[in-house]
User: Fold this.
Amino acid sequence: MAMASTNLAATFHKRTQGLQVMCRKKESQQDPYKVIVITPPPKNLGIRCFPPNMQCGENVTIEGQTYTVSSVTHRYQLRKGKYEPSEKRLDVLSTGRYILNLYLESLLEQS
Assistant:
């Protein structure tokens, strides 16, 4: 289970003219992810640091709540003829909701 790290450092780069969020690295490398709970209505949990190898189905704990990763999205932007990473996003569900969705999907396949 991954724990959300709140060790974030925001830096401003003049070259890109934007705000870049960097995670302070402890023992292992961590990347900033935008975390969104996707149950209606969607709720933004902010930017959190997680290991770069996050996968669907992993459990994460944010502010005492346990969530399960539903999808991981890496977005890229074309700049000066090259694609550069622009955003990493985790879509999460509460663990109970995730299990309920799996159960309902299996019932739908059986019918």
